[in-house]
Amino acid sequence: MLFCSVFVIILCWSVSTVYGIEKEKSGIRIRVTRTGLDYASALGSAILDDEIPNTPVPDVTATITRGPGRGHVILENVNITLFKSPEFSYILHPPKNLTFLTKGGFVKVEGDWLAWYKVLFNVSLSGKINASAGDIDIRMSAEVIRTPKGLPEVNVTSCSAEIGDLNLEIEGGVIQWIVNLFRHVIAWNLKHELAKQFCVSTQGILMDLANRELQTLPTEIPIYEQFYLHYALSKDPKIAKNFVQSQIGAEITWKGESATPVAPIPLPNATTRANASRMLYIWGSDYVLNTFLYTAHRHKAIQFLISKNMDTKIAQFLKTTCMILCIGRMVPEIGKKYPNQSLDIHVHSSNPPLAEIQPAGAILNATAFADIYLSPWNETGNLMFRTQITFAGSLGIRMVRRRVVGNLSIDNFHIQLVESHIGKIPLKALVIVEDAAKPVLQDLANKHLRRGLPVPTVKGAILVRPRVKLLERAIEIETDLSYKKYFPRRIMKNWKKVGDKLLNN
After folding, report:
1. What is the pTM of this model?
2. Considering the chain, what is the average pLDDT of its residues?
3. Domains defined along the chain, listed by start
């Protein structure tokens, strides 16, 4: 129950802002609405129905003080045979606490009893019990905090549980008046032991399973080759009246590096209705994309080669000798000095590209050098001339499964001569370089944009019908969630161990 609700809160944990005008800068923000919390409650109910019947119930003991003698009774081998989970509700307590409440529900148990009673001599009795109770009321308060490593952790601050009237049937025991002496006390003890165990078990799920799983969340995700997305909670999640938010710093860096000098962009002020129909809202700054572009430029990852091996048309352009149209014909000095050879165009970024997202559309601006060498460029080292390419393109952004992907369409493309080591370079030669570089540059950019950036989630979490909206310097993703992961019954054996630890603290 509580585990699932907190799980949804941190599910993509990519996140948040303080209320009103945001004074801190972050790469990503997430908001879990009441719709998301309602889903978590329903999910928690289903999990409890499946798992509570496997909860071990400790032996229950009582002292028999009524009647003419004294004795003891013990219930052992107590098993939950039926459990119908109660209805869940929750209360959000700004700025950091949540309280989860249950109402209703039903439980049945069975077990064995043994009794010893002494008046003038010892009498031993045994038999079986069957018990049932309703109105399972659990009240649990918790907070989600940030660990020093930037991971989320759930702390239960309090838990109490009560069960309604318990109906106890005692079978066996040939001396009925002795059985009646302990019926009331053993029923009272069993009722309170079950209530305590429900509380301990729920906390066990939360603290053992949830935290164990949350601590396995990676803070470094491989994007492509040596590029990694680094992300971590920058502060404790915040709780408001109708939603829960958290805040994350996120950057894409080269493996082994932890930060870039790119300045974060403040996320736009977040607005969602109190009755928002989607479970989860994520805001991502274009700052995250720009950290990738900076890193790619710094590590010389934005480069490609245009050579005769690409296609027939390009191979023709790159010839030093031809009858109609090629660079060697446009620049006669190249044809004279290097007849019947081919050229390479080495394109590489001259500055980090810059992406800017606006409500009307996203734009990518970039500059690059296009260096024309005698082929093969990396062996001859013979630079003929250098040009600079400046372009701006429209950047389409959409969701594909759990990734934010893009598509680039180059709108403006300009090329100019920077330097020449082969004499005068006519405009027609620059046009040939432009015709060769523009489509290759666009195709290469789209190859990388199609890989996209992942939205981090724990295993088993699926984004349902995500939609992307462009904002001022950010994107907004609204989505529902589905959690498919199966909770294995082996976790139940850990509950008693965790519960004992809780009771001893």
Report:
1. 0.78
2. 83
3. 2-218+458-504 (3.15.10.10), 302-400+403-454 (3.15.20.10)
